């Protein structure tokens, strides 16, 4: 008899976005003529940059010819992409990594969810709250999160609240945690940490022998100078952090699938007997066993975003979304609402008026303004009383959504 991994049974019955989809469907059945503007789900709407399309066409032609055909590639990724990453994403920021410290993946989600395999199930963990749900859910699956309490919190997880009161800057844990997830620029609050603030976390990790998983999926949206693009801009971070990046929101790869994970050679974790083991070696072993690489065609598309034309095209798309973000921020403020984020990130974190719950405001906004957001509480207990709006929509839709919200709030 095959016994099930009972930790899976502890997972919340349905995923946040399927609950939202059900509510939208109910609305559509009862209001078939109303047109809804969706500013909820974090998927992009702009097509891939033309350089990526050209690179893929060329790569497809190579695949059609016996002399240039490629079969299995290196599990870690092709050198041409790794070199482009090192040269463009890190060297200009004074971060020097070796090619074997980069692992090309099929988007950030897989590695974000899988990286915990390197660590024993009984490590303690900390997360900022609210946050991208994959960190907690993937740890629930291996039993690391403990049991769910009535307060909506998992017993083995240390929650680091990010609230209006602390300007969405979490305080260091009052006790040590083994594993810590940080996501900056943050999904869902759209806020960031300055270099000085991030340094506090790196110092905490070094002092406490904590491993940081740094999710920088929204790095391309950073506009302000004092916001670090990589955790390795902070001294000592190579000894305590893994960084995960994605081309999804940078270059519209949500459907194409590519990103990368940085596991520095200096990074180690302890065995029960106190020896130290290099995580880079373990992750390479894991990838060679469970992953056969991202497709050649996709990696050529990713390489193309680092060409001069690619950089311009990527910038144009990001500028488009950030224009949406400022239109939305202005519109919401003009409607008398309080809103955070949207300056270094494509997310706006809207405070519900009069202390209304996230789900109640979500429904009111859907039924009265026909605009869809994401209830903040879906990202963690400290998200209660907030709604996440994304700037990934079409510009006309963002303008129209703001008109509707202003009218509704008047
Ligand atoms: N990390 C964060 C914080 C995200 O918001 C997302 C997607 O929305 C991901 C990772 C996963 O991105 P992908 O798997 O498309 O690279």
Automatic annotation (TrEMBL):
Identify which cofactors the protein needs according to its UniProt entry.
pyridoxal 5'-phosphate
| Keywords (A to Z) from UniProt | Aminotransferase, Pyridoxal phosphate, Transferase
EC assignment: 2.6.1.83
Catalytic activities: (2S,6S)-2,6-diaminopimelate + 2-oxoglutarate = (S)-2,3,4,5-tetrahydrodipicolinate + L-glutamate + H2O + H(+)
Tell me the residue numbers annotated for binding substrate: 15, 42, 109, 132, 187, 292, 388
Q: Name one GO biological process term.
A: lysine biosynthetic process via diaminopimelate, diaminopimelate-aminotransferase pathway
Q: Which residues carry this modification: N6-(pyridoxal phosphate)lysine?
A: 249
Residue ranges constituting the Aminotransferase class I/classII large domain according to the UniProt record:
35-405
**What GO MF annotations does this protein's record show?**
L,L-diaminopimelate aminotransferase activity; pyridoxal phosphate binding
Q: Which SUPFAM superfamilies match?
A: PLP-dependent transferases
Record-annotated residues binding pyridoxal 5'-phosphate?
Answer: 72, 108-109, 132, 187, 218, 246-248, 257, 292
Give yes or no: UniProt keyword Transferase.
yes
- Specify one Pfam family: Aminotran_1_2
Q: What pathway is this protein a component of? A: Amino-acid biosynthesis; L-lysine biosynthesis via DAP pathway; LL-2,6-diaminopimelate from (S)-tetrahydrodipicolinate (aminotransferase route): step 1/1
Self-association state and partner proteins as the record states: Homodimer.
PANTHER family in alphabetical order: AMINOTRANSFERASE (PTHR43144)
What family is this protein classified in? Belongs to the class-I pyridoxal-phosphate-dependent aminotransferase family. LL-diaminopimelate aminotransferase subfamily.
Protein purpose: Involved in the synthesis of meso-diaminopimelate (m-DAP or DL-DAP), required for both lysine and peptidoglycan biosynthesis. Catalyzes the direct conversion of tetrahydrodipicolinate to LL-diaminopimelate.
Protein name in UniProt: LL-diaminopimelate aminotransferase
Task: Give the originating organism.
Answer: Mediterranea massiliensis
Annotated gene: dapL
